[in-house]
Design a protein that fits this description.
The complex is a heterodimer. By secondary structure, chain A is mainly α. Chain A contains 11 helices and no strands. The chains are: A mainly alpha, B alpha/beta.
Chain lengths: ~260, ~325
């Protein structure tokens, strides 16, 4: 068997393992969807009126949903990083590493499973949003592009989640990463335009990776001018994905005791 | 006999602390080799290096003719590892764990199912096969772990303290499995801190202490290598005990509570006859006589100057008298 077919076959086995975990514990999916949906309800129901007037948009839900989509992806990191950390601390990764399998397959399986789970939760959240009155104007091509951007962001955050899961000696060690990933969207263009924020916060919101991703999605889904943020969005995602992947690879190959 | 594993000059330090200080080992194919030592002696590190999980700082390790540093993939293809802590997928069922391993060993679907079913049966897990491993007891988990190792038919198996924490029944079952594997031609590399386990199972033993091999040989050779053999004479009454002690004129250790005398004796016919001659008529008072060669506890203590791990300091005196 060539290296490539071995990698494909073992990665498929590991992906099946991830899916089996998800099917056995669908609560993972519910948790991943719950917080974004609650935020959606909160920001529509409680702050929606005031914010719509504040930002001068036709409908606040149209402004809000792209940010909620990004938050859904960010919340999906929790299950990923915890699953990787569990594998690592329970010793099954050590077992896999003593087997004649493609080493890459172990993490590939986690990433493939996490991507699928994240895309399903995003679909569920979009479904809820549409139920609440979200009316995207995108045609098939723009939807496809939007899914591409979401998948790329999910890939980037997933590889980072995998790396942090491997780096942490125990589950508690992943909380710092999760906190950052889950809080960053609040200081982005998710809820209000950065232009309405105060000095340093505005600068941060304009220059952090979630903002161009959210703006790009907003442009694709609701047709607002996204001002050429797509390049920045793709660059951020590709850069973070690559960094996460390379770091995870180093962590996976390092000696067991440290 | 061909070598399954050869280790020479193996060194490893973690953060300036020397864990393995130049060890040499030779394991013949189709035998059980036991690395015996207390906690922290370097046993697990040795297994991790042999099983390609940790890089050595120096020395050569060859497993099935392949250098672990240069050809880790070739080594992985012939080994199976069951570590100290069960490495199982707690979210899957016992059967799913085995099928996962079967898939990773690239067994066909039917073959994988057949082997998984046979192993579940063999390890007494058939009934729990459909339950998630999270519900398993420690013993069941350990058995599943070993079954997962065996599904790939490894020729060399590393068992790192496989019976630590097991109840006596599970422990005997593990021993039985190990014997069956060796009978089938598998090479077993076993680490343990239990002397009787090494004594029961191993063809060859190396005693590891503070990262160096302090003794190596068959269990019999190790026992012979140190003095400590004695004859134990039990008497029907205290009068017989006293008379015999006087006849020997010192050199015997008296236990009043059990009415026994312990006399140094190497167990050979000559020394037994000498002992009986010295006892003369008082030998008639003996109700039971047994000859004891040194056990591995004596060996371990003599070699390392401290009792085996887990044995509290108070046990030292008891072991010296044993």
């Amino acid at each position: 068997m060539t290296t490539l077919t071995l990698a494909a076959r073992d990665s498929a086995t590991m992906t099946r393992r991830s899916f089996r975990h998800l099917l056995r514990y669908p609560a993972t999916l519910v948790t991943a969807v719950l917080v974004p949906v609650l935020l959606l309800l909160l920001f529509i129901g409680v702050f929606g009126g005031a914010l719509r007037a504040g930002i001068g948009a036709a409908s606040y839900i149209g402004y809000l949903v792209p940010g909620i989509i990004v938050m859904t992806v960010a919340y999906g990191c929790q299950a990923t990083t915890l699953a990787v950390n569990r594998d690592s601390s329970e010793g099954i990764i050590a077992r896999f590493r003593t087997m004649a399998i493609s080493p890459a397959s172990v993490l590939n399986g986690h990433v493939a499973g996490a991507l699928a789970r994240t895309l399903v939760s995003v679909a569920l959240v979009i479904g809820v949003a549409i139920g609440l009155g979200f009316r995207p104007t995108a045609g098939a091509g723009r939807w496809l592009a939007a899914v591409g951007v979401i998948a790329l962001l999910a890939l980037a955050l997933t590889w980072l989640a995998v790396a942090f899961g491997l780096a942490a000696k125990a589950a508690e060690g992943t909380t710092g990463f999760l906190l950052i990933v889950q809080l960053l969207p609040f200081i982005s263009s998710a809820f209000v335009p950065p232009g309405q924020m105060s000095g340093p916060v505005q600068w941060f919101a304009e220059h952090q990776p979630f903002t161009p991703v959210i703006d790009t999605l907003r442009g694709l889904l609701t047709g607002t001018p996204s001002g050429g943020t797509a390049v920045a969005a793709v660059a951020w995602c590709a850069g973070l994905a690559l960094a996460g992947y390379l770091w995870a690879r180093v962590l996976f190959r390092r000696d067991l005791n440290r | 006999m061909t070598s399954a594993i050869t280790v020479s000059g193996l060194r490893k330090s973690f953060g300036g602390k020397v864990v393995l200080d130049g060890i040499d080992l030779e394991v013949s194919a189709g035998t059980t080799f036991s690395l015996l030592g207390p906690n922290g002696a370097g046993k697990t590190t040795t297994v991790q290096i042999m099983s390609t999980l940790v890089h050595a700082d120096g020395g050569d390790v060859c497993v099935a003719g392949h250098d672990v540093a240069r050809e880790p993939a070739a080594v992985r293809a012939v080994i199976g590892v069951t570590g100290q802590f069960s490495a199982v997928d707690n979210l899957l069922t016992g059967e799913e764990n085995l099928l996962l391993m079967a898939d990773l060993h690239h067994l066909g679907r039917a073959d994988g199912r057949r082997r998984a079913a046979a192993l579940l049966e063999q390890f007494g897990l058939a009934e729990a096969a459909g339950k998630t491993v999270a519900t398993y007891s420690g013993g069941m988990r350990r058995r599943l772990d070993l079954a997962m190792t065996l599904i790939g038919d490894p020729r060399i198996i590393f068992l790192d303290e496989p019976t630590t924490g097991l109840d006596p029944r599970s422990r005997r079952m593990m021993w039985q499995t190990i014997r069956q594997l060796v009978a089938g031609g598998v090479t077993i590399f076993l680490t343990t801190q239990q002397l009787d386990e090494a004594d029961q199972l191993a063809d060859q033993i190396a005693v590891l202490d503070h990262g160096t091999v302090v003794a190596a040989g068959s269990p019999e050779e190790l026992k012979r290598s140190i003095p400590g053999g004695h004859a134990r004479l039990r008497f029907a009454d205290a009068a017989g005990l006293g008379a015999a002690e006087r006849a020997l004129g010192g050199g015997a250790f008296r236990h009043d509570d059990t009415l026994t005398l312990e006399v140094p004796c190497d167990g050979g016919a000559t020394s037994v006859r000498d002992l009986l001659n010295r006892l003369g008529d008082t030998a008639a008072g003996i109700s039971e006589m047994s000859v004891h060669t040194a056990d591995l506890d004596d060996v371990f203590f003599a070699l390392t100057g401290h009792p085996t791990a887990g044995a509290p300091a108070e046990a030292t005196a008891e072991m010296e008298n044993a």
